[in-house]
User: What shape does this take?
Amino acid sequence: MKDIDYQALSRELDEIVNKLQSEDVAIDDAIRLHGRGIEITKQLEKYLKAAENTVSKVSGVEG
Assistant: This one.
């Protein structure tokens, strides 16, 4: 798996959420931010799934 900085992606996602919650975001910017948020979420899910698999292998528990 590619090296991703989980903390940095998590912070970026938080920033996107905060921007989208503000009332002064143009619709085009909101659409772009939403798309980026989805991309980040998918990356974080892959990272967590890989971590879960690693823990399962190390602990000898499958599933």
